[in-house]
Specification:
By secondary structure, the chain is mostly helical. The protein is built from six helices and no strands. The chain has helices at residues 2-14, 23-55, 60-92, 96-108, 115-122, 126-132. Helix 2 runs antiparallel to helix 3. 19% of the residues are buried.
Length: 135
């Protein structure tokens, strides 16, 4: 929510200005594209690897801590790229970083934690599902 608010305020303040682009700012747009694609790719690669460590844990509490860590690392990567996109938009007045901002927001949607998804990702048995509260 915070990054969306930041982007909205930045757009209201800086998006209404004239679209003057200098050649020196174009490199920042490429940086925005690279950061966005790297963050999305890294999030899809890192989360499964971090979840593998969660599967090796013996107790439900340890599994949930490892799952939380995997989610936080993924979200931090995506949020960092999104904040960079907004800052690059402010600096360059180019709206392309906002397109990548929206793309990363769309990546966030399926990462929302849900008890059934957590249970499936951690491959919990019935006893652990009951303890977690999955019906």
């Amino acid at each position: 929510m915070g990054q969306t608010l930041f982007a909205a305020v930045a757009y209201l303040i800086f998006g209404m200005q004239s679209d003057i682009h200098s050649d020196e700012n174009n490199i920042l747009v490429y940086v925005s594209v690279f950061l966005s694609m790297s963050a999305i790719g890294a999030s899809y690669i890192l989360k499964p690897k971090l979840l593998e460590t969660a599967l090796t844990k013996s107790s439900l509490d340890e599994k949930l801590k490892a799952y939380t860590t995997a989610c936080l690392v993924t979200w931090a990567l995506l949020e960092g790229a999104n904040m960079a996109n907004v800052v690059i938009f402010i600096v360059t007045a180019n709206k392309i970083p906002l397109v990548f901002f929206l793309a990363i927001l769309l990546v966030y949607i399926p990462t929302r934690p849900d008890l059934r998804k957590i249970s499936a990702d951690l491959k919990l048995n019935r006893d652990e599902e009951k303890e977690l509260g999955v019906s």
